[in-house]
Amino acid sequence: MKINNRIIIGLAIILLLIASSYLFENIIQETGMKSATVIKITDNNKTIAFISVDVLKQLVEENNKKDDEGMPSEPSLLLAMNAAGVNKFKQIEIKGNGVEGSVILNEEDINNSLKLFLKDNGTVDLCRENDKSNTIVKSVTEINIRDGN
Question: How many helices (H) and strands (E) does the chain have?
Answer without folding.
Answer: 3, 8
